[in-house]
Design brief:
The complex is a heterodimer of chains A (340) and B (261). Chain A is mostly helical and 340 residues long. Chain A is 76% helix and 0% strand. Classes of the chains: A mainly alpha (340), B alpha/beta (261).
């Protein structure tokens, strides 16, 4: 096979392969951990048979945790792919418009004021509010500069708003007590330890409509990835498409960040890896990134709670330490010329 | 019958001191090839964008097919006008995927490509001789090949007008000549062609009408023999030239040695 010729595996075959990966990672996530179990033991526990402690571990801890990781991974990867298309920038990732800093700001304020301990759900709600507020601020700045949305201005607005919010976060933490600082930093590193069926429901109810919207925009996103004038000449209503796609991807990221903290790397690298293997057509890229992101984050979360014995590693450490070598491997076996 | 009608058109970029397009009025005939000429910064690209509705005039009006360009939807314009723009980002798409994007105004966001769409894609690739590149990744192609892929994408739109911004700027002689020959063939089939170019001599041989822009205004408009006089070219391009006749009779501009300004 010439390295310059694309080998197309059929779309359904890619989806089937990645779905199997997601299923395998979910099974591994439920089976592995401080208490490991056999396949039949796992299915018994899911069905509510056998040892009551195991049933609780499986049903109340591991299943929601694995599902939340899958949903967050899917959300971050599909948002990342969308941002990379809209901004035509390979370094674009879901947090590039300041969503993570806004969320961290909300989270840190609840931690420092003690609300996060007193009021259930106050932290994720505040994180989501912070993320949405920072998003609105970034768009307000970008639209203030020109009549249309200039993605370069949007990118810069995201970076400066983010820098400003991070400044405020460190200012607040400078005067906070040690315990708050520790909790805040742990939140910022990201974790699925607080997953519950409720958070899974919330994230799923954000993810499903977002996926429908973004998958429906796959072809316009293809055109926008080439350039906004070209997209307009080929019949796309550019401003409308950008607004819907940016809004959806940003809100989806905000939902994910507010339940699991800022987990880096997934949204940046999973879409790149999928693109290197199967090309940049968003009709394939978006669904494949969704599944690959889910499988990757479930795997990373399982490792994060099984590698260090009783202690749990922040998942961001695992995504970087495992993900980077994987990505380099994909990079090396891809023809050089594909890197655009 | 005119494809475009432009009346008293002004356009000033945000915060610019001078208007990029400063009181332009002309018609572009349907079924003919019109070349937009002019030195760098004369307003060619701005005028093209105004013709295509991606810029809104500061004042004045642009009609396409007797309807204000601003009154057209992007989709309807894309069904009528194919565009070959100058520079684009080049992400990981195959040549076939890029050419297939020309069918977007016909299929919309959802519909699968029908047999008629696939035929149009194959025809467009064949006409621009990129069929054998169909499964290559775009970033692996040479500059000239990419230019031809963009032309193929515009042909896949099956438009009745074609607008090209410097389509042969990175092509060698063979591909430049075959591009102009292809444009002439399309013109003979009834397609309206508008091309912005710096190649005065090929424009003189292939275009039916020339529009010479100078500092946002029309310096001359008409047949090549009328527009390309030595005095006028010297005045507009600020360089001494002489004009000779090509074997086929078209005026050809030959730049002379001159003092470096």
């Amino acid at each position: 096979m010439s390295p310059r010729i694309v080998r197309h595996s059929p779309f359904w075959a890619r989806l089937a392969l990645l779905s199997v990966l997601v299923a395998v990672s979910l099974v591994a996530a439920v089976r592995l951990g401080a208490i490991s179990m056999t396949m039949s033991g796992m299915f018994d526990a899911i069905a509510g048979r056998g040892d009551p402690a195991t049933i609780i571990i499986v049903r109340q801890l591991r299943m929601p945790r694995a599902l939340q990781a899958a949903l967050a991974g899917a959300a971050l990867a599909v948002s990342g792919a969308t941002f990379q298309a809209l901004l035509r920038n390979p370094l674009a990732e879901p947090y590039i418009l300041g969503v993570s800093s806004g969320a961290a700001m909300g989270a840190v304020l609840t931690v420092v004021t003690g609300w996060s301990v007193r009021v259930v759900w106050s932290l994720p709600v505040a994180a989501f509010a912070g993320a949405v507020l920072s998003m609105l601020l970034v768009f307000r700045i970008a639209y203030g500069v020109g009549r249309t949305l200039d993605t370069r201005v949007l990118l810069l607005a995201g970076v400066v708003v983010s820098a400003f919010l991070v400044g405020i976060i460190w200012l607040v933490l400078t005067f906070a007590d040690d315990q708050s600082v520790r909790s805040a930093i742990f939140w910022m590193m990201g974790s699925h330890a607080n997953a519950s069926w409720r958070s899974v429901e919330i994230l799923a109810s954000c993810l499903v409509p977002s996926l429908i919207i973004l998958f429906a925009l796959a072809r316009p996103l293809n055109l926008l990835a080439i350039g906004e004038p070209t997209a307009a000449y080929l019949g796309t209503s550019v401003e409308h498409t950008k607004l819907v796609a940016f809004g959806t991807a940003t809100l989806l990221t905000a939902a994910s960040v507010s339940v699991s903290g800022t987990i880096g790397f997934v949204g940046l690298v999973v879409p790149h890896a999928v693109r290197l293997v199967w090309g940049g057509d968003h009709r394939g890229l978006l669904p494949c990134s969704t599944l690959a992101g889910a499988a990757f984050l479930v795997g990373a979360d399982t490792l994060s709670r099984s590698l260090a014995g009783a202690n749990e590693l922040p998942i961001g450490i695992v995504t970087a330490l495992v993900g980077v070598p994987c990505f380099i491997w994909i990079l090396k076996r891809s023809p050089e010329a594909r890197l655009a | 019958m005119s494809a475009w009608r432009v009346r008293d058109l002004h356009f000033c970029h945000r915060d610019a001191v001078r208007s990029a397009v400063d009181g332009v009025a002309f018609d572009i005939a349907a079924g003919r090839m019109t070349a937009l000429l002019g030195p760098n910064g004369a307003g060619k690209s701005t005028l093209l964008q105004l013709l295509l509705g991606t810029l809104t005039p500061t004042s004045g009006s642009v009609w396409f097919d007797d309807r204000l360009v601003s009154a057209w939807t992007r989709k309807d314009l894309a069904l009528a006008i194919g565009v070959v723009p100058q520079g684009e980002t080049e992400p990981l798409f195959t040549v076939r995927e890029i050419v297939a994007m020309g069918r977007y105004p016909h299929t919309g966001a959802w519909q699968r490509e029908r047999p008629s769409d696939l035929e149009a894609i194959e025809r467009a690739m064949a006409r621009c001789s990129v069929t054998e590149l169909a499964d290559r990744w775009l970033p692996t192609l040479s500059g000239g090949e990419r230019q031809r892929v963009r032309l193929a994408r515009a042909l896949a739109q099956e438009p009745r007008a074609l607008v090209l911004d410097e389509p042969t700027s990175s092509l060698d002689i063979r591909h430049e000549m075959s591009t102009f020959a292809l444009l002439r063939a399309l013109r003979d089939e009834g397609t309206t062609i508008v091309i912005a170019t710096h190649n005065l001599n090929l424009a003189a041989r292939y275009a039916d009408e020339l529009v010479l822009l100078h500092r946002g205004r029309i310096a001359a408009h008409g047949a090549p023999s009328h527009v390309l006089s030595a005095e006028r070219i010297e005045a507009v391009y600020e360089w001494p030239v002489s004009v000779v006749a090509h074997i086929d009779g078209a005026p050809q501009v030959v730049p002379c040695d001159g003092a470096v300004a």
